[in-house]
Amino acid sequence: MVSKKLIIQPGDYVEVHLTQKIYEGVLLESPESEKGLILLKLDNGYNIGFKKKEVLEIKVLKKAEEVKEEVDFAVNKNKKNIGMIITGGTISARLNPRKGGVDWLTSPEALFKYYPEIFDKVNVVKVEVPFMKASEDMGFKDWQKIARTAEKLLNDKEIEGLIITHGTDFIHYTSSALSFFLKNLNKPVVLTYSQRSIDRASSDANLNLQCAAVAAVSDIAEVMLVGHASENDDFCYAMPGTKVKKMHTSRRDAFKVINSKPFAKITLEGWEKISDYNLRDDKKKVKLDVKFEEQVALIKIYPGQDPDILDYYVKKKYKGIILELSGLGHAPTMRSRKGWTKKLKQVQEKGLVVCAAAQTIYGRLNPLVYSNGREILETGVIYLKDMLAETAFVKLGWVLGHEAWAQDRQLIREKMLENISGELNDRLEE
């Protein structure tokens, strides 16, 4: 039976008594199609359903409280000041018990209500919310908006560094874009995130955000991602914005530095340098370079793929393409039934810029080892060494966005192969 001592509502923390087992969790609102079920969000974050006729009793352990989202923003003179940009993602979401999913935390007060520990590290003196979007819904105009907001905060003398909260799935595109958009960087720009929302006992949000605060007042004047270094809640890595990639769908340590090293190991007590980085210089003034050509694409090569797909991009007036090639930089050639050699020559003669990145992720392209690679190289494809495909996509859009560069194919090649924001490494790291 359902306890009648209290009116039970979605959002209450309850015990659900079955014949042989008792479950604890947050009561969820059942949809119209499932009114015969009682839904519960367990402490581990998973949802479970019970048929009402199988439930012996429901006890309320804690009522859902309507707490005003008020946070004390009082500045502690003994702590350094930072700014924040809130953009969405799991780190900016909370459980909605009526639907069993999450909603955006739409104000700074709401965010800090769930993450008050950040104030143990720093003063958050300025907060901007340019938009609230999942990262998969973002595009280059959103990257530009974040960059413009970041420029304003970074050039504020009151602020020591900047934290940007962001969704995980495409955060490495944003970090790459900011690495090219923000020139003459003077202070830390820290993107952070969470794989699991704050209502889950295994959430990575709090540690990531606190470590981000430590990184934001460090002397690392770089665009970086800060997040769990392992599945444990022990420390985070500060990872270069152009050399990082999401490598797992759900693990808390999903992000890895590729072909390079983290800048630093970050703990709640401080940070330890791992590799070289640009030092903060508060005398510098950040300048924006947010030009971007939207008509670029990323294509993955697979066996038997028809090269005529490139005609679509020419027809649609695309300016550039990143090809994810296999191995050291291979695609089907003239020896294949659907060879790409002739088509690659044709589309480049029509003005399409074609660059190559490795779909193997780790390692460096070298088209000179096998005749297949040499054949593709001779068509004019620009081989981008160890640059990540996502970074290459963003960089190509940025390079082609500069009209003076985009008119000169040799200059495009030079810019794509110039190490502008740490996107290329002469020496690969494990």
Q: Could you provide a short overview of the structure?
A:
The chain has 430 residues and is α/β, with parallel strands linked by helices. The protein has helices at 108-114, 140-154, 171-181, 205-216, 309-315, 341-349, 371-377, 389-400, 403-406, 409-416; strands at residues 13-17, 22-28, 37-42, 47-51, 57-62, 81-86, 93-96, 101-104, 123-128, 162-165, 182-183, 189-192, 223-228, 236-240, 244-246, 255-257, 264-266, 271-273, 287-288, 296-300, 320-325, 353-358, 382-383.
Strand content: 15-25%
What is Rg?
25 Å
Structural class, by secondary structure, is alpha/beta
Number of helices: 10
CATH architecture name of the largest domain: 3-Layer(aba) Sandwich
N- to C-terminal distance:
59 Å
Specify the helix fraction band.
10-25%
The whole-number mean of residue pLDDT values reads 89
**What spatial form do the alpha-carbon principal axes imply?**
globular
When the domains are counted, the total is: 3
How would you write the strand order of the largest sheet? 9-6-10-12-13-14-17-18
Notes on the protein architecture:
With 430 residues, the protein is an alpha/beta fold. It is built from ten helices and 23 strands. The strands form six sheets. An eight-stranded mixed sheet has the order 9-6-10-12-13-14-17-18, with helices on both faces. It has a five-stranded antiparallel sheet with strand order 4-3-2-1-5, with no helix packed on it. It has a four-stranded parallel sheet with strand order 20-21-22-23, sandwiched between helices. Strand 1 and strand 2 (22-28) form a beta hairpin. Helix 2 crosses helix 3 and helix 3 crosses helix 8. The N and C termini lie far apart (59 Å).
